[in-house]
Design brief:
The chain has four helices and six strands; from the N terminus they run ααααββββββ. It is α+β, with helices and mostly antiparallel strands. The radius of gyration is 22 Å and the shape is elongated. The relative contact order is 0.15. This is DnaJ (Hsp40) homolog, subfamily C, member 24.
C-alpha cells in the first residue's frame, strides 16, 4: 500500500465550510463569498494588488462551488479527502531508504525483510514518488520508504 500525495486545494476551506454542510449551506456560503470577491463589486478605493487578490479568491471560490455543488464531483472529492486523511495518519514502524532495499529481478520489486520474517515489497512504479507507505505481507507492520535522496 502506498501513500499518494497530491497538492490539491481544500475546497471546503475555500468556501469556509465543512464536509458535513448541506448543499443549501454550501450555496449560501458560495453566494456570500462570490459577492464579496466579485470583480464588479470592488470599490474604487481598492488597490491593484487587492483587486488581483480578490479576483484570485473569486476564481477559487467559483472552482470550489463547481466541485462541491455537483453530487458526483463532491463524492469523488470527499473520497480523495478521506483517502488522504487515512494515508497521513497511517502508523509507520520504520523509515527505510530505497537504497537499503533489495531489487528482486524475478518479481520486479524492491524488498525489505520484516522482523516477523515477512517482507515489505514496493514496485518500480510506486518507487517513482518521493515516499511510499508499504505494509508487510505477513503482519500488520508498515514502513515509510523514502524513494528520493
Amino acid at each position: 500500500m502506498t501513500s499518494e500525495r497530491r497538492s490539491q486545494k481544500d475546497w471546503y476551506s475555500i468556501l469556509e465550510s465543512s464536509p458535513s454542510d448541506m448543499l443549501q449551506d454550501l450555496k449560501q456560503k458560495y453566494q456570500r463569498l462570490a459577492l464579496m470577491y466579485h470583480p464588479d463589486k470592488q470599490g474604487p478605493d481598492v488597490t491593484v494588488t487587492e483587486a488581483e487578490e480578490h479576483l484570485h479568491r473569486f476564481i477559487e471560490v467559483d472552482q470550489a462551488w463547481k466541485v462541491l455543488s455537483n453530487q458526483e464531483t463532491k463524492r469523488a472529492y470527499d473520497l480523495q479527502l478521506r483517502a488522504s486523511e487515512l494515508n497521513q495518519s497511517w502508523p509507520v514502524d520504520a523509515h527505510v531508504c530505497l537504497d537499503d532495499m533489495t531489487w528482486d529481478d524475478d518479481n520486479e520489486v524492491y524488498t525489505y525483510g520484516c522482523r516477523c520474517g515477512g517482507e515489505f515489497s514496493i514496485g518500480r512504479e510506486e518507487a517513482e514518488g518521493e515516499e511510499a507507505i508499504v505494509c508487510c505481507d505477513t503482519c500488520s507492520l508498515s514502513i515509510e520508504v523514502k524513494t528520493t535522496t
